[in-house]
Amino acid sequence: MHSAVNNNLQLWLMGLFLALVVLIAKSVINAGVHPIYVAFFQAAGSFLYLVLTGAGRSVRLRVIKEHFTFFMIASLLGFTIPQLIVFSAVNHVGVGIASLSYALPLIVAYLISLKIGLERFNLKSLLFLLLSVAGTVVYLFRSEYFLDFEGSKIWFIVLLLSPLSIGVANVYRSVKWPQDIAIPATALLTNAFSSVTYLFLLLAMQVEFNADLWGQDNVAVLLGALMLLSGVGQYLLFALQKNAGPVFIGQTGSIVTLFGGILGYLVYNDAYSYHTFAGSLLIFIGVYYYSKIKWQYAETGH
User: Fold this and answer.
1) Range of the domain at 153
2) Cα 1 to Cα 300: distance, rounded to the nearest angstrom
3) Cβ proximity of 131 and 286 under 8 Å
4) What is the rounded distance in angstroms from the CA atom of residue 61 to the CA atom of residue 67?
């Protein structure tokens, strides 16, 4: 019972921290920071946080060599590729549709997990998972996002690769998790690979960072907060990956949507309509009852 409560608490905390990261990212991008730099600071911040908390003590060069493929695939599929797709597609398909990329991996991870035996089929579990996704759609519903959608069909198809990539990565990390490496070290090395990948992209694309931004609109403070929150969020993500599995952590996207709307309302005075209220309720019910069924089965076997 204690383990179930702890995992549920970590899931909601991770969703809150990632929602704060999204909020800060929006602020610094509005201030003039390029989105790819934001993604780099997220990965680099996570790496630095994990180093400072001692995650690197057990890391040896042998470990990196033996599990190079795992860290490369986990970082590319789980973070680098989907982030770049969303950043590239958002101006073509709109914020609402792009945001669904973080909710749909739940279904991808569930279907793959069923196929390979990581998840047992349970009609109630499936219905509550679908309820969370439906709640996210309702939550994000805006006429300017969906009803008047005139985005490029090609970009819409490209965007579908993002939830597919994240869903596959969630399952891959569970199946191929290096058994001889601790959770913090696994998170550390995955984010190290992501940081290096983003750095190469920044150099290849020759994206410049305007040094004048450091003194504007608290950009330096916000980026520092973003790096810290990203680090804590990444630790929670990998801890839940190891202890609760890919489908459970797949609920994060819906939770981020819920907290993101609340924070947007409090900080940016974003509209909070009956759509967002109804979506919030559906997300909460879906996540709560799926989690309850999962841990009940883990404890009793039925």
Assistant:
1) 2-300
2) 11
3) yes
4) 10
Amino acid at 230: S
Residue that has been written with the tokens 């349970």 in this structure? 122
Q: Which two tokens stand for residue 59?
A: 């890391």
CA–CA separation, 82 and 79 (whole Å):
6
Specify whether the CB–CB gap between 156 and 93 falls below 8 A. Answer: yes
pLDDT tens digits, one per residue of 145-159: 554 455 567 887 888
- Whole-angstrom distance, CA of residue 266 vs CA of residue 160: 31
| Rounded Cα gap, residues 97 and 265, in angstroms | 20
Q: What is the pLDDT of residue 255?
A: 87
Please state, in angstroms and rounded to a whole number, the distance separating the CA atoms of residues 4 and 285: 17
CA 62 to each of CA 53, 108, 185, 193, 238: distance values in angstroms, whole numbers, following the listed order: 22, 33, 13, 16, 21
Instruction: Give the number of domains in the chain.
Output: 1
Which residue has better confidence, 120 or 224? 224
Q: Which of 36, 71, 82 is nearest to 200 (CA)?
A: 36
Q: For residue 301, report the phi and psi dihedrals to the nearest 5 degrees.
A: 85, 5
Q: What is the CA radius of gyration of the chain?
A: 19
